[in-house]
């Protein structure tokens, strides 16, 4: 793997992780229609930032898969699954952070039955939740397979693979205890766990000796 490509992929993981962290710090909690209309600018900015970070993370994930490549090319499987999750995250961010605030700002207090508006918004929230579940599942699958590939190829230190498996075990405990990963708090927990693994992997890729 070319050193310049490896370092650029690592930098993209750093940049994408930083933007994802800022997104979670800025992400406001939902609320009534009036509250959504009031925080429209914050919703738009935080979710636009989230969408902007996805290509950086995707490029970094591509670099990781190339680094862990084997003759069977199995390392590309977690990359494509991960990209599926990123697409789901883009849809969720667009629905919840772009469509929702503009829709509410336009039609709230416009004389339309509030129950009708709530029903439409409820549909959007179910769509958003389904995309969140796809994103979380795709990331968990990808990290699990990447971690296994790290153990097989020894291209990165083994402890980062065990750290990935540890994150998955914590997530499994959360699922078994009915922890809500798609609430604002729960999604922050998931994103910070994902970001911690990506940053560590990026650091190992960037400072890997030839």
Report what the structure shows:
- The protein has one domain (3-206).
- The protein has helices spanning 3-26, 33-38, 40-67, 76-107, 114-153, 158-176, 184-206.
- It has seven helices and no strands.
- The chain crosses the membrane at residues 44-67, 79-104, 133-152, 159-179, 185-207.
Low-confidence stretches: none
Number of domains: 1
Count of separate DSSP helical elements: 7
Q: Using only CA atoms, what is the Rg?
A: 19 Å
Class by alpha and beta content: mainly alpha
Largest sheet: none
Give the terminus-to-terminus CA distance: 10 Å
Proportion of strand residues:
under 5%
What pattern of helices and strands is seen along the backbone?
Answer: HHHHHHH
Oligomeric composition of the shown chains: single chain
Organism: Emticicia agri
Keywords: Membrane, Transmembrane, Transmembrane helix
Protein name: DUF4386 domain-containing protein
Write the layout of secondary structure elements.
Layout: H1 3-26, H2 33-38, H3 40-67, H4 76-107, H5 114-153, H6 158-176, H7 184-206
Helix pairs in contact: 1-3, 1-7, 3-4, 4-5, 5-6, 6-7
Summarize the structure.
With 210 residues, this protein is mostly helical. It is 82% helix and 0% strand.
Annotation keywords:
210 residues, mainly alpha, 82% helix, 0% strand, transmembrane, transmembrane helix, membrane, DUF4386 domain-containing protein
């Amino acid at each position: 793997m070319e050193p310049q490509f490896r370092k650029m992929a690592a930098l993209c993981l750093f940049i994408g992780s930083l933007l994802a962290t800022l997104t979670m710090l800025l992400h406001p909690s939902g609320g009534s229609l009036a509250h959504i209309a009031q925080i429209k600018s914050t919703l738009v900015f935080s979710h636009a930032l989230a969408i902007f970070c996805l290509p950086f993370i995707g490029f970094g994930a591509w670099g990781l898969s190339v680094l862990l490549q084997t003759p069977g090319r199995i390392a590309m499987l977690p990359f494509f699954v991960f990209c599926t999750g990123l697409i789901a995250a883009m849809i969720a961010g667009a629905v919840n952070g772009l469509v929702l605030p503009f829709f509410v700002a336009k039609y709230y207090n416009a004389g339309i039955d509030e129950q009708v508006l709530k029903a439409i918004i409820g549909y959007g929230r179910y769509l958003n939740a389904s995309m969140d579940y796809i994103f979380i599942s795709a990331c968990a699958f990808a990290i699990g397979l990447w971690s296994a590939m790290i153990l097989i190829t020894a291209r990165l230190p083994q402890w980062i693979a065990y750290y990935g498996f540890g994150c998955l075990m914590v997530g499994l405990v959360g699922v078994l205890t009915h922890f809500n990963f798609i609430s604002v708090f729960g999604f922050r927990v998931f994103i910070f766990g994902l970001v911690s693994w990506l940053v560590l992997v990026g650091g190992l890729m960037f400072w890997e000796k030839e």
